[in-house]
């Protein structure tokens, strides 16, 4: 089955490369560093001698989540370099924002999952360990790591019931891949049980490393400057929104007569920034954009502020009064609500949070989050909280306490990784 899978990759490769160029129309980063995706790394400045640790974080969320663990690895192994790989240019850009000033951190794209490309990658860098973030299990990556005696750890692991069912349809691929893991550090007991069903041999519950992410002081300062631009109005941030959600949120906004509330939308994917701006204008709503607003105070008639920048999520959360975390109004699984909680902001989530089920439910039980049924209900709850300073501030404190009390996953994960590093 793995042979068929590998052949499928080779036959699909022309279409895969064409897709890079098509996506590159809106995201030029997809047209950069293509040689790395094919297993050639002449542009990565590695001397071939310094011991190297490898962390793979596919995109933005995984890269931000990896920050505490990468900091811990660099501190524990001061003579090592660390290679951070990605699959998306936005993940790579986030890694550069976080670690661009750290000379021991190198970056590249992970090669496509063929045995030859992954083998060439491993021969080039000879990593002492492979650390995969969250859900990134590739059959040939696992097989080649076994071949080259590279221990593999899946950390901050999460696996939904839906993903487990899909993986079990191809047991000779994914069960074999899971069996090759040296250890798994799962976010929750539910995740751990599902990973065990997939066949991973050494599974531990360590919690989510995302709880250990500290809001950077620079981002909090930017948030304060943004807040000053917004003036006296209350601010609802709709962050990490996905295709289809902005339409629902904007249409619901039109149904409420509250010009005293500023809606801040931060789409999940940067290639959609212009599309979302067009949606706002098409509804006759006055718009300001982060990329062009400068530092001037927003005009009173601006109804929507578009957060069209990368790497500033903590600033956006810091600048708002209330946060809705997207990917949850539609059945997309939701996104990380910990960042909003960490800066003490009350959180709203939609009905679909299966990718972060435990975190969402725990935040709700703790009183730091509320689940809304739809976009109209989102605005009903937002207006209620924005009009009640006492209730909103109390909820924000509960959200922050929820984020703080679940820390420690990085330390527990490091205790599993260090025995594996040669």
From TrEMBL:
PANTHER family: 3-DEOXY-D-MANNO-OCTULOSONIC ACID TRANSFERASE, MITOCHONDRIAL-RELATED (PTHR42755:SF1), 3-DEOXY-MANNO-OCTULOSONATE CYTIDYLYLTRANSFERASE (PTHR42755). Its main location: other. Transmembrane segments: none annotated. Belongs to the glycosyltransferase group 1 family. It is an enzyme of class 2 (transferase). It comes from Herminiimonas contaminans. Involved in lipopolysaccharide (LPS) biosynthesis. Catalyzes the transfer of 3-deoxy-D-manno-octulosonate (Kdo) residue(s) from CMP-Kdo to lipid IV(A), the tetraacyldisaccharide-1,4'-bisphosphate precursor of lipid A. Residues 295-400 form the Glycosyl transferase family domain. GO terms for molecular function: Kdo transferase activity. It catalyses: lipid IVA (E. coli) + CMP-3-deoxy-beta-D-manno-octulosonate = alpha-Kdo-(2->6)-lipid IVA (E. coli) + CMP + H(+). This is 3-deoxy-D-manno-octulosonic acid transferase. Its EC number is 2.4.99.12. InterPro entries: Glyco_trans_1 (IPR001296), Glycos_transf_N (IPR007507), Glycos_transf_N_sf (IPR038107), Kdotransferase (IPR039901). The lineage of its organism: Bacteria, Pseudomonadati, Pseudomonadota, Betaproteobacteria, Burkholderiales. Pathway: Bacterial outer membrane biogenesis; LPS core biosynthesis. It is found in: Cell envelope; Cell membrane. Residues 34-213 form the 3-deoxy-D-manno-octulosonic-acid transferase N-terminal domain. The keyword Phosphoprotein does not apply. Keywords: Cell inner membrane, Cell membrane, Glycosyltransferase, Lipopolysaccharide biosynthesis, Membrane, Transferase.
